[in-house]
Amino acid sequence: MKQINFISSENVVNIESPKKIILFGEYTYNYDGSVLFAAIDKKIVLIQKNEAVNRSNVFSKNFEAMPKEISIRINN
After folding, report:
1. Separation of alpha carbons 13 and 3, rounded Å
2. How crowded is residue 59: how many other Cβ atoms within 10 Å of its Cβ?
3. What is the Cα–Cα distance from 58 to 47, expressed in whole angstroms?
4. What is the pTM of this model?
């Protein structure tokens, strides 16, 4: 993954979420039914820094179908 270096570590949030798949019971999960999950060796990482820029940068480590970096303008 692209190394992200913030000049200042103030206001930086780093969130990592392990991935899982639902093997059985996706529909019943919404209604408190039985579900069979499996963990997979993937994760989503979100790094956020609050600054006065109306832009979000998205990086991809292994997804070959898209560019490694996408910049998205955010309008109020």
Report:
1. 15
2. 15
3. 10
4. 0.39
- CB-side exposure of 37: number of CA atoms within 13 Å? 7
DSSP assignment letter at 64: T
Query: By 3-state DSSP, what share of the chain in percent is helix, strand and coil, each rounded to 5?
Result: 5, 50, 45
Q: What CA–CA distance (Å, rounded) separates 7 from 21? A: 37
For 26-68, how does the pLDDT look when each residue is reduced to its tens digit (9 = 90+)? 777 667 778 888 888 877 777 777 666 777 777 666 666 666 6
Rg (CA), the chain: 17
Find the DSSP H helices in 1-76.
26-29
The full set of domain ranges for the chain reads 12-73
Tokens matching residue 36:
């069979």
